[in-house]
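--- STAGE predict ---
source: upstream dedup step, 1 unique chain passed
mode: sequence only
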Amino acid sequence: MDILEKVKAFLKRKDIVFSAKRYGIDALGAMAQGLFASLLVGTILSTIGQQTGLTVLDEIGTYAKSISGSAMAVAIGWALKCPPLVLFSLVAVGYSANALGGAGGPLSVLVIAIVAAELGKAVSKETKIDILVTPCVTILSGCGLSMLIAPAIGSAASSLGIIIRWATGQQPFWMGIVISVLVGIALTLPISSAAICMTLTLTGLAGGAAVAGCCAQMVGFAVMSWKENKVGGLVSQGLGTSMLQMGNILKNPRVWLPPIIASAITGPLATCVFHLEMNGPAISSGMGTCGLVGQIGVYTGWVADVASGAKAAITPFDWVGLILISFVLPAVLCWAMGKLFRKMGWIKDGDLKLD
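--- STAGE serialize ---
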């Protein structure tokens, strides 16, 4: 057996798979869950605590938010099927990558946790002192990489986010369409729109456009598929994820057109008419109506802006814009287009049925 074959056999035995699916879909998707279970839930609890005066909820939320880097790294390790010692060692790796990555913390965690996890898997159970070797390799490689490259990754991601936000401010109509459509598509694809928004720190008007795109997909599919899925589908898609429709989209791509068209309409309305801004956590920009995280994020941004003096007050127009962009317009537009597409024969009964 030559060296190449030996390497292939070793990688197979260690379940180390270099593929876009493993890293770009499995790991990224799991990272989003780690973000949700820490930063997002923490933000929700903190917001409830601050608005109701229940300081204990605010404190609990703060604890949850503080370990988001570790939660992301462990989630990535779980997706990569890491053995226990590697998985537990990723706690330190995630913390360091997120802390040193600044605004690009999630991207730093994604890249560095993948490298550390695979190196840890490679040495796992290969020595008689595995209890020392595996954690040391995982932590030294991960934290070392964090010190070397996390700040640069963070700066690059932050710069790209700044460019996108600047472009949105200069061209709110066209960028409103682009961001709304692309982030909405990302939300329905088996990748993480939340992680993308967090990585690029999509806030401000760009974040508002992202919220519009995500809501168009989630609420749009939920309403459009009412005939097939009734209340269960309305809740699972409208408050869960439109990703549930991916199988049906692959069978008949035309079912995706109404939500995409709706996002192209609501995006510029959000940026140009209602001036909807996401000044809460950037990750909320990519969540849409999932657990109402997108709407809570917009609200927390309003509260923060009022407290800082950047905004005089939360107005009725703000609430009307948020409700129309998040719920009413996606529902009406996708319902109408869904009816039209069914009459045209582009969507047939059962095409949107969830298993």
